[in-house]
Every structure is written in structure tokens, then in C-alpha cells.
Fold:
Amino acid sequence: MLQPARYRDVYIGGPDLVMPVLRGRAACIEGAPYRISPFFPRSGRDVFAEVVERIRDGALTGRQMASACWCALVSPPEIAALLDEMYGEGEAESPPALEALRHFVAALPKDCTFALVAQAF
Structure:
């Protein structure tokens, strides 16, 4: 019997392994990209489901990489916009985990793409 996922995480990973796959130049790999960011904290919205839905709808350039892993190529401004949408724009009292993630995204090189990873296990 299939068990429901106990953990559903969203994070930023390095694009080096998934970029060729997502651009259709390499066969799909099994597994998730390595994590380089803090995890996205819990929100009033289901961030995991939002990311998966945007990948499925084509709003984000990505695909399902494994049975419970979806990846999309995103730029730092796209990640910042997602954070604003999911958690609110510039809230005065942000939780420490969200503040750490916002600082991490702000420090990323703006001319690069990264893997936005939604993984369940």
C-alpha cells in the first residue's frame, strides 16, 4: 500500500545537473539536486503544492524529475517574487527562517539560474 508523503520540502538547488534535463538535452536523472539554500518555511499556503502546480501548468520551466521530485529553472528575481507571493511582501515581522531565506536569495548572482526543487518523501 502506498504511504502518503511525510515531508514536503521546497529549496533552491544548483542547476548544473538538472539544466540539461529541463532543457531537453539530456535524459532524466533519478533524484533531486543538492540543496544550497535554507528550506522554504511553512506558510499559510502550501508552497510545495504551489510550485508543483506551476511546473505542471507551465508557469515555471521545469518537470518532474523523480517519483516525488519536481524541479524548475528560476532566476533570483523569480524566486524573490515567489517569496513575496507566498509569504507577503516586505512584512515588518518576518520569522527568522524566512528572513534567512530572503537574505540568501538577495545574495545570489542575478544573471544565473537555479533549480527550484519541490521534493516529497
Summary: Residues 8-120 form one domain. The beta strands are 8-13, 62-66, 69-74, 114-120. The CA atoms of residues 8 and 120 lie 4 Å apart.
